[in-house]
Write a structure and sequence with these properties.
Shape: globular
Distance between the termini: 33 Å
Structural class: alpha+beta
Strand content: 25-35%
Number of strands: 4
Radius of gyration: 18 Å
Number of helices: 4
């Protein structure tokens, strides 16, 4: 009986932690490689346009930062919720600079992971 109660408490705690984490926001981590013929400087301008014209204007946006190592690009976006992050992703294709952004990266290297903020 004790072990069943303990297992239930652990399950409840993990579920409550998930709910609490979602209330604290979401961190979206995107990595991608630029195409060989694209300079970091050229892509940085397009990336900034995506941030200024689209991402930062989305409901639930908190902040965005970018970093680069060679031709590998990292974007970290903080959202108020997973729904806000998904809505932004769903609307990305309609952003004015989206086509140019996508034409400059090797799409096969793009990864995106979302993390629930826990503290």
């Amino acid at each position: 009986m004790k072990s069943v109660l303990f297992a239930g408490l652990i399950l409840f705690s993990s579920m409550a932690g998930t709910v609490m984490a979602q209330d604290k926001g979401v961190v979206e981590v995107v990595t991608m490689n630029l195409k060989d013929d694209v300079s970091v400087e050229a892509f940085a301008a397009v990336d900034k346009a995506i941030e200024d014209q689209h991402v930062s204007k989305q409901p639930g946006f908190v902040s965005r930062e970018t970093a680069v190592s060679g031709h590998k690009w990292l974007v970290i976006v903080h959202w108020k919720s997973a729904d806000a992050a998904q809505a932004s992703m769903d609307s990305f294709a309609n952003a004015p600079a989206a086509a140019e952004f996508m034409s400059m990266i090797d799409a096969s290297t793009m990864t995106m992971t979302r993390y629930d903020v826990v503290r």
